[in-house]
Design brief:
With 172 residues, the protein is α+β, with helices and mostly antiparallel strands. The chain has 2 domains: 1-36; 42-152, GTP Cyclohydrolase I, domain 2, CATH 3.30.1130.10. The protein has helices at residues 3-35, 83-96, 105-119; strands spanning 45-55, 61-71, 122-131, 146-152. It has a 4-stranded antiparallel beta sheet, covered by helices on one side. It is extended and about 90 Å long.
Length: 172
């Protein structure tokens, strides 16, 4: 074996040794990161629904609106949003909103959910707008319950089929 071949084997062995050490360090770091809990594992969520609202959109529909939100990390108790304030915005927009620009439920839901997220200290939010079918054949034939779901941030999307309850909520 020549000196060059021996030096080449040593370099190859060093590369393998360094690569193995790096992989081991990465694996240990990954395992430690998963084993050591951090403050980000704690989530503070809230869920509510507004049901039985009569909306003038699409020639009048009764809708349910469900909201699941996650509070910002480290939010002080005194800064917690009162869900009734979110509810008031929902009732106002769905019962008195201007839908002339775009009456699609998907757009109405996206705009409303985005407004809630921007207005309150929320890390994430998922909003679901439910409407029953209209069983009148013709241009307005929409059988069965249908929904729009809009989700912003790291939270599971709402996915509820059909009504949660048939009892209308009183308007504020």
């Amino acid at each position: 074996m020549t000196a060059a071949t021996t030096a080449g084997h040593r370099r190859g062995a060093r590369v393998i040794l360094v690569a193995t050490a790096l992989l081991a360090a990465l694996a240990i770091g990954f395992l430690l990161a998963r084993a050591v809990p951090d403050d980000h594992g704690v989530r503070r969520d809230f869920l509510f629904q507004v049901d039985g609202l009569h909306s003038p959109n699409q020639n009048g529909h009764t809708v349910n609106y469900l909201v699941h939100y996650r509070l910002d990390d480290g939010l002080a108790e005194k800064d917690l949003p009162n869900y009734l304030h979110l509810r008031r915005i929902i009732v106002d927009r769905l019962t008195r909103g201007d839908f002339a620009g775009n009456p699609f439920w998907e757009t109405v839901n996206k705009d409303l959910c985005s407004e809630l997220k921007a207005t309150f200290p929320l890390a994430a939010i998922s909003c679901q707008l439910q409407t029953p079918g209209v069983d009148v054949p013709g241009n307005r034939y929409e059988p069965g319950w249908h929904s729009s779901v809009h989700t912003i941030g790291d939270i599971e999307p709402l996915a509820t089929t059909g009504p949660i309850t048939a009892t209308p909520s009183p308007s504020p």
